[in-house]
Amino acid sequence: MLDPSLYRDAMSRYAGHVQIVTTAHAGEKRGVTITAACSVSDNPAMVLACVNASNPKNAIFSRSGNFALNTLSASQIDLANAFSGRDPALTAEQRFSMGNWQELVTGAPVLKDALAAFDCRLVELKVMATHMVMIGEVMGVSFGEPGEALLYMDRGYRTL
C-alpha cells in the first residue's frame, strides 16, 4: 500500500478549483471548502463532489438529499478559509454570515457571488475509503460576476 503522506505530497502538485460545497437540513447548515469536484455529465447535468467521511458533521449531506457546489473567485479567499475548518472556533452561523447566500431549487445554500453555483439533488452517495463521493443532478445554476478563479496548489492559493 502506498504511504498516504507520499500520496498527499503528489496531490499537492495537482491544481484544483476551490469550491464550497453546502447543504441544509432541518434548520442546520453545513459548508466545506473542497477542491475535489468535477463535472460528470451535461445531459442530464451532473456534478461530483467529495467530502471527508470521518467528520461526523458531514453526515448532514446524506440526510439532506441536496447540495450546492459554489465555485470561488480569487476575491473570496476569506470565505475559502472560513469554510476550510482552519479555525474550528467558527460556528456554521458565523461562516454563513460572511457570504451573501440564497436558495434556488433544492434548499441548499447558494453563494450569490460565486463564479458559478450548481444547486443539486443528491442522486448517489458512496463512501470510498476516507471520503464520501456525492453525485448530484444539477437542478439550478447561478452566476456571479466574471473574475479570476481561485485555485489551490502546492498547499497554497493561486489565481488564474
Automatic annotation (TrEMBL):
Q: Which residues form the Flavin reductase like domain?
A: 11-159
Annotated TM spans = none
Q: Name one GO molecular function term.
A: riboflavin reductase (NADPH) activity
Record has Oxidoreductase as a keyword: yes
InterPro entries on file: Flavin_Rdtase-like_dom, NADH-dep_flavin_reductase, Split_barrel_FMN-bd
Question: What Pfam families has UniProt attached to this entry?
Answer: Flavin_Reduct (PF01613)
Do the record's keywords include Oxidoreductase? yes
Q: Where does the record place a coiled coil?
A: none
Q: Name one GO biological process term.
A: pyrimidine nucleobase catabolic process
Q: Which UniProt keywords apply?
A: Oxidoreductase
PANTHER family documented for this protein: FLAVIN REDUCTASE (PTHR30466), FMN REDUCTASE (NADH) RUTF (PTHR30466:SF1)
Which protein are we looking at?
Cob(II)yrinic acid a,c-diamide reductase
Q: Which organism is it from?
A: Shinella granuli
